[in-house]
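tokens incoming
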């Protein structure tokens, strides 16, 4: 019998609780209780709640980027690629509503504001941002 991965349980429960209650409404003790681990166990995997939230964001972002890349064709006209990306993103969020709720909260919180500021100041890259790359190509044309 496979032993459950505590880190994955913590991440899954964090996603559920944060999507439902928000960042401040999901304290570490609540996450630990619902994940079936001790409060100290969370800190073996994540030094702080901020790190847990950042890791969860990165994991979800990677899944979204992979979903958008599936079937994406650089050779198609910009308009077709834009419609493709919008449709894929909408379908993804319909299929994964918790991901949508988490990301919406993330980008409208100090975490998201900080990320946007870093991108604006050039401290973060747009490599995985298919929309931004598409907009840049459109402007260049």
């Amino acid at each position: 019998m496979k032993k459950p991965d505590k880190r994955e349980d913590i991440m899954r429960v964090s996603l559920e609780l944060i999507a439902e209650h928000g960042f401040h409404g999901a304290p570490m003790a609540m996450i630990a209780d619902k994940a079936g681990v001790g409060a100290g166990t969370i800190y073996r995997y994540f030094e702080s709640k901020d790190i847990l939230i950042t890791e969860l964001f990165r994991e979800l972002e990677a899944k979204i980027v992979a979903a958008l890349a599936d079937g994406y064709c650089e050779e198609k006209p910009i308009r077709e690629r834009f419609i493709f990306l919008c449709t894929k993103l909408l379908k993804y969020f319909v299929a994964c509503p918790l991901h949508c709720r988490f990301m919406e909260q993330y980008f409208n919180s100090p975490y998201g504001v900080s990320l946007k500021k870093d991108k604006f100041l050039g401290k973060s890259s747009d490599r995985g941002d298919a929309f931004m790359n598409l907009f840049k190509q459109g402007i260049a044309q």
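note: The chain has eight helices and no strands.
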